[in-house]
Amino acid sequence: MQFTILNDRRFWLLFAFAITLLGFPYGILTDWITRSGDVYSTNHPGGGDFVVFYVASEMILQGHFRDLYDPAKFSQTIIDRYGSDYEMRWLYPPHFLFFIAPIAKLPYLAAWAGFMAASFAFLAAIGRIVWGKRDIVFWLLVAPSTFLGVLLGQMSFLVGGLMIGSIFLWDRKPILAGILLGLLTIKPQYGVLIPLVLLLERRWLVIGVASATALVLIGASILVFGTAPWHAFLFGMDGANSDILTTASKKFLGLQMSVFGSARLLGADLATAALLQGLSALLAVVALVATTLSGARRDTKIAMLVTATYLVSPYVLFYDLVAPTFVALWLYFGKEREQPPGILFSALLIFVAVLSFVNGATVAFGFGSGPIAFFALAIALLLRGRAETGRNGRSLRGPLIKGKCREANAA
């Protein structure tokens, strides 16, 4: 077929990304440029959410470790520094403090820029290792999830890189995958289903390395910061966590990608939203187990693991989409396959890759599209896995256990 730009998959992906930049949800790009809105104050230019990490670093350097986990004290610290607490709290485990401890030694803007650059460089490096070619760095750079991460000053690049690396690399580099998985405990909700798959596939080396890495991090945090932050994190944060999950703020719920958040946006009470989230989690786990034990190809299983994770968690915000974006890119370009997917599946993958924009558009009509995207992708992956199992004629569980995944997937 004669080449035209309209039959190039890269054109349609770039087109979708460009449309996203023109219509970011809630005018976030405009707020960032004008330093207006609820978070983008002239008091702390740059990523609005980064103020949490910056203030936490200041408190660490001053020795106020436990105060991080006291919502009232943390709020007062932000007010003293900026005049408003911006309704932000510290919700991360103590060993994450190692990642942000020194940043307050720099001016706010320099610290934000440095943190964003370093964390994206980490994501790009992991993406390059997994993908095998440098072109993935370009696609990660122009992805909507990247712009959101920078504008908000969030840790999404770091978490996304850890999740991608731990899942995609446990065949080729199990020790590195285990280390990355241990580090992923800085935001544990995105690794909650990984142990289940590791047990089903009997990947004992990855489990052992991940456990050792997490224990070392926790032990080091106790040695450096003492036990008080851990006690406060485990037993003293009920109020801060419940405030986030029980909020009725339409603006905040509009940024949620979970079943729970979307149900609340539609007006469901807490009990109904929790029930729907529980059903979503149950269905996601069943789909994940079925796919993991099937004869589906490896990328199908990985995509189902990521998709199920986002259906299980009740707290997923619109900047937490780096891993789904990477999976969508992998499947969209047909990595390690002879042919890319068909039109309908490709459209669904683009939908996932620009979900932050689509969700912002649907929220304007009163509903979130996060669960729609992830449920649709889970169903498509189930059908894909079933077809692949039929072609293979057997389960791949045996070859996976024996470390022969690549040979089995090539069949």
From TrEMBL:
Signal peptide limits: none
Transmembrane parts of this sequence: 12-29, 96-124, 136-169, 175-198, 205-228, 274-296, 316-333, 364-383
GO cellular component: plasma membrane
Cross-referenced InterPro entries: GT87
Localization, UniProt: Cell membrane
UniProt topology in membrane: Multi-pass membrane protein
Coiled coil stretches, renumbered: none
UniProt keywords, alphabetically: Cell membrane, Membrane, Transferase, Transmembrane, Transmembrane helix
GO terms, molecular function: hexosyltransferase activity
Pfam families with a match to the protein in the record: GT87
Primary subcellular site in the record, as a coarse category: membrane
Similarity-based family: Belongs to the glycosyltransferase 87 family.
Protein's UniProt name: DUF2029 domain-containing protein
